[in-house]
């Protein structure tokens, strides 16, 4: 790690991803929208001063504010631009040579009576080369002139942002006869003079003129697409304008996916308290470990001289072992959270933008599918959606989703639609699994509910504290948590209908179906009544959990996108368990699920349905329209997959242990990717090893998977301690947890007040 300023990297280095996406070295560029650009530049005055190349940059810059602007007006004159709605003034001043006239204009801004521009972008040289036919005398005069201007620019740099744009190379073969004297050799000489002279007298880094040299790198890749060999193509000019916007606006707007030029966020009060807690846990664990080691040495087995019998060491009391396990878990968790913070908050490691190509998505998919098939084993049981099979299902879906996020495949609509089905399939399993448990076991006790809620939410709550993010930011966990509570409420409220009760009287089955119909009605009503939904989740403290950027719209959108699939999972579980109870399906090893004829018909319908959905999803043209249909039709492909996977006896009897291993830690993988595999809260890619993208992915993936596995173990260990089976002890723990969250809400309110 060089420790350099990311602004310097943004202005001086980078590379193209594909043909049009510019990737600065070590950091991420944000793509500014018109509204964001206006908010950043409100009440600002920006000046571009120079030749025709600077004029091009001026037009690209103002198009970020108003895309309707046309490039018209006097090419060899001053061009004003004003956005009255945001009080933004952007002027282009025609000074094609670095001479006395340019000096006089710049000097006027340094005088006290004149309002200084907030941003000054200057640069010129090609006219000097052209007018003086590339003579050495012209270069000498250029050096003299820029030497006289340098102190004025440095003086302005104390209160304004001043950028000197170095000259781009030309494509000499395309230059007209009147421009043939403008060679890359001459341009390099002029650039060298500008770099050497500017800032030569300034020692204060804050008062330096910023050298905009990245344009040279961009031009080297794109100048051959120029219309005249001198001026850059439009896409390159737009990239330069976007770089300028990032340099100035990132520190003001603080976009998540714009890490360039952003300072490290200060630690919040809650983060400081979390740091102290984990530090004390590590110290406490080390002290207890040392005490135990000393006790072990003292109590080593030794022969009793009187009886001749071997004495056994004293056994530790359960309280000590529980405390040690607690401190050990928090000690490991503290070290892991430190890694999280360093990766995605401390500006220590580099971050890069995503760039989608078909190969970056489909090649890893093929690779993991081959690995998954290679690790095929027999299942312990052959029931529909048995434990090994559901773990395998979660595992391969999670790996596909991870590759989808890493490759930035959300920009490719057919892939996006299929990934939406995978997310829906997770929720389908939520409905299926929890309904099956409550229906068969009839266990509605607090212990079961608290165990599930703890396992789902523990990691996210810790990350909300350490990474200073709202609960809704990790949207999938709130989604699964709310749906679990809905399933629980549906089945637990009077009358409680479970399998044991329903077996005695078939009418109870109709009672359960009535409950499910009521649930479906409520879902339908809330999905089409955004106002009612927002009122429910806008009450404090629910609003604290489900608000994102000051409103609950994002939560409503996420909930609405897969609103029916949990119900479908519950209904499927009910039908399957009813058929199983009446022995209408065959689940023996190697046996088809139904009779051969029925199995073949269902298998054919399932394959056709699966392919039909894929064809429809691949032909999607509009994301909004497809999202509207998705909640109703996603179940088609999910059910088709379940039937294809379970109707043939052989297919139902085997599973991939490779995928199943990942399935057991799928929740941790999904959450951990936000900060230690991806970067900038999933907007970019974490770079631990710069310059070697494949090796970087291997190393960061290995650490990421190990951390997810370790957190899964920690969560399981803590769940046994924090959520005991004894009801009275559990009640005390719940009171402690309620106190903890009350304190957290209080500190959070204090933080919000101090920020405002």
Automatic annotation (TrEMBL):
<dbReference type="GO" id="GO:0000139">
    <property type="term" value="C:Golgi membrane"/>
</dbReference>
<keyword id="KW-0012">Acyltransferase</keyword>
<dbReference type="InterPro" id="IPR057106">
    <property type="entry name" value="NXPE4_C"/>
</dbReference>
<feature type="transmembrane region" description="Helical">
    <location>
        <begin position="561"/>
        <end position="579"/>
    </location>
</feature>
<dbReference type="GO" id="GO:0005975">
    <property type="term" value="P:carbohydrate metabolic process"/>
</dbReference>
<dbReference type="GO" id="GO:0047186">
    <property type="term" value="F:N-acetylneuraminate 9-O-acetyltransferase activity"/>
</dbReference>
<keyword id="KW-0333">Golgi apparatus</keyword>
<feature type="domain" description="Cas1p 10 TM acyl transferase">
    <location>
        <begin position="253"/>
        <end position="734"/>
    </location>
</feature>
<comment type="similarity">
    <text>Belongs to the PC-esterase family. CASD1 subfamily.</text>
</comment>
<feature type="transmembrane region" description="Helical">
    <location>
        <begin position="730"/>
        <end position="750"/>
    </location>
</feature>
<feature type="transmembrane region" description="Helical">
    <location>
        <begin position="325"/>
        <end position="343"/>
    </location>
</feature>
<feature type="transmembrane region" description="Helical">
    <location>
        <begin position="269"/>
        <end position="291"/>
    </location>
</feature>
<feature type="transmembrane region" description="Helical">
    <location>
        <begin position="355"/>
        <end position="375"/>
    </location>
</feature>
<feature type="domain" description="NXPE C-terminal">
    <location>
        <begin position="22"/>
        <end position="92"/>
    </location>
</feature>
<protein>
    <recommendedName>
        <fullName>N-acetylneuraminate (7)9-O-acetyltransferase</fullName>
        <ecNumber>2.3.1.45</ecNumber>
    </recommendedName>
</protein>
<feature type="transmembrane region" description="Helical">
    <location>
        <begin position="506"/>
        <end position="526"/>
    </location>
</feature>
<dbReference type="Pfam" id="PF24536">
    <property type="entry name" value="NXPE4_C"/>
</dbReference>
<feature type="transmembrane region" description="Helical">
    <location>
        <begin position="659"/>
        <end position="679"/>
    </location>
</feature>
<feature type="transmembrane region" description="Helical">
    <location>
        <begin position="396"/>
        <end position="417"/>
    </location>
</feature>
<feature type="transmembrane region" description="Helical">
    <location>
        <begin position="685"/>
        <end position="709"/>
    </location>
</feature>
<keyword id="KW-0812">Transmembrane</keyword>
<keyword id="KW-0325">Glycoprotein</keyword>
<dbReference type="Pfam" id="PF07779">
    <property type="entry name" value="Cas1_AcylT"/>
</dbReference>
<feature type="transmembrane region" description="Helical">
    <location>
        <begin position="600"/>
        <end position="617"/>
    </location>
</feature>
<keyword id="KW-0472">Membrane</keyword>
<dbReference type="InterPro" id="IPR012419">
    <property type="entry name" value="Cas1_AcylTrans_dom"/>
</dbReference>
<keyword id="KW-1133">Transmembrane helix</keyword>
<feature type="transmembrane region" description="Helical">
    <location>
        <begin position="452"/>
        <end position="468"/>
    </location>
</feature>
<keyword id="KW-0808">Transferase</keyword>
<feature type="transmembrane region" description="Helical">
    <location>
        <begin position="474"/>
        <end position="494"/>
    </location>
</feature>
């Amino acid at each position: 790690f060089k420790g350099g300023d990311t602004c310097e990297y943004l202005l001086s280095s980078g590379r193209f991803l594909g043909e049009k996406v510019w990737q600065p070295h070590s950091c991420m560029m944000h793509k500014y929208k018109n509204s964001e650009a206006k908010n950043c530049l409100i009440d600002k005055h920006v000046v571009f001063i120079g030749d025709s190349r600077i004029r091009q940059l001026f037009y690209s810059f103002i198009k970020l504010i108003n895309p309707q602007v046309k490039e018209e007006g006097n090419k060899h004159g001053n061009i004003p631009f004003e956005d009255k709605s945001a009080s933004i003034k952007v002027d282009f001043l025609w000074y094609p040579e670095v001479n006395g006239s340019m000096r006089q204009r710049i000097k006027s801004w340094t005088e006290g009576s004149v309002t200084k521009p907030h941003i000054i972008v200057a640069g010129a040289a090609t006219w000097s080369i052209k007018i003086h036919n590339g003579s050495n005398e012209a270069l000498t005069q250029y050096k003299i002139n820029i030497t006289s201007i340098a102190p004025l620019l440095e003086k302005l740099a104390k209160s304004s942002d001043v950028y000197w744009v170095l000259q781009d190379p030309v494509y000499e073969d395309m230059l007209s006869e009147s421009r043939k004297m403008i060679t890359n050799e001459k341009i390099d000489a002029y650039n060298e003079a500008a770099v050497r002279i500017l800032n030569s007298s300034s020692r204060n880094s804050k008062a330096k003129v910023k050298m905009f040299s990245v344009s040279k790198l961009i031009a080297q890749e794109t100048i051959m697409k120029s219309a005249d060999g001198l001026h850059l193509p439009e896409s390159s000019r737009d990239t330069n304008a976007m770089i300028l916007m990032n340099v100035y606006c990132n520190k003001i707007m603080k976009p998540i996916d714009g890490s360039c030029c952003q300072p490290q966020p200060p630690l919040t009060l809650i983060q400081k308290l979390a740091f102290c807690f984990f530090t004390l846990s590590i110290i406490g664990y080390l002290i207890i470990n040392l005490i135990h080691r000393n006790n072990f040495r003292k109590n080593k087995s030794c022969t009793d001289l009187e009886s001749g019998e071997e004495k056994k060491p004293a056994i530790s009391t359960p309280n000590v072992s529980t405390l040690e396990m607690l401190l050990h878990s928090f000690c490991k968790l503290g070290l892991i959270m430190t890694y999280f913070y360093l990766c995605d908050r401390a500006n220590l490691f580099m971050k890069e933008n995503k760039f989608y190509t078909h190969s970056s998505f489909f090649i890893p998919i093929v690779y993991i599918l081959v690995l998954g098939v290679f690790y095929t084993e027999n299942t312990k049981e052959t029931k529909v959606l048995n434990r090994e099979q559901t773990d395998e299902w979660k595992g391969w879906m999670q790996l596909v989703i991870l590759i989808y996020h890493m490759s930035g495949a959300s920009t490719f609509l057919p892939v996006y639609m299929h990934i939406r089905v995978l997310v829906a399939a997770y929720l389908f399993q939520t409905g299926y699994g929890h309904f099956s448990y409550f229906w068969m076991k009839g266990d509605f006790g607090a212990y079961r509910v608290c165990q599930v809620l703890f396992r789902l939410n523990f990691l996210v709550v810790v990350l909300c504290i350490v990474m200073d993010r709202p609960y809704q930011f990790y949207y999938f966990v709130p989604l699964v948590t709310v749906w679990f509570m809905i399933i629980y409420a549906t089945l637990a409220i009077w009358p409680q209908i479970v399998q044991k009760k329903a077996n005695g009287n078939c009418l109870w089955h109709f009672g359960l179906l009535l409950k499910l119909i009521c649930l479906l009605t409520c879902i339908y009503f809330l999905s089409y009544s955004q106002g009612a939904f927002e009122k429910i989740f806008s009450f404090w403290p629910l609003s604290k959990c489900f608000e994102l950027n000051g409103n609950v719209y994002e939560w409503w959108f996420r909930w609405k996108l897969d609103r029916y699939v949990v119900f479908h999972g519950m209904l499927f579980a009910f039908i399957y368990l009813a058929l199983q109870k009446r022995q209408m399906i065959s689940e023996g090893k190697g046996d088809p699920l139904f009779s051969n004829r029925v199995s073949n018909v269902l298998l054919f319908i399932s394959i056709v349905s699966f392919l039909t959905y894929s064809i429809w999803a691949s032909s999607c043209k509009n994301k909004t329209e497809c999202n509207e249909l998705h909640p109703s039709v996603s179940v088609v492909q999910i059910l088709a997959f379940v039937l294809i996977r379970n109707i043939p006896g052989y297919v139902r009897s085997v599973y991939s242990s490779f995928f199943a291993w990942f399935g057991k830690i799928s929740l941790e993988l999904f959450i951990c990717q936000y900060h230690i595999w991806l970067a900038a809260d999933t907007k970019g890619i974490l770079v631990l090893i710069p310059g070697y993208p494949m090796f970087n992915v291997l190393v960061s993936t290995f650490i990421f998977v190990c951390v997810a596995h370790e957190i899964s173990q920690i969560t399981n260990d803590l769940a046994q301690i924090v959520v005991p089976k004894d009801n009275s002890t559990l009640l005390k723990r719940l009171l402690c947890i309620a106190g903890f969250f009350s304190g957290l809400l209080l500190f959070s309110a204090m933080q919000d007040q101090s920020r405002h």
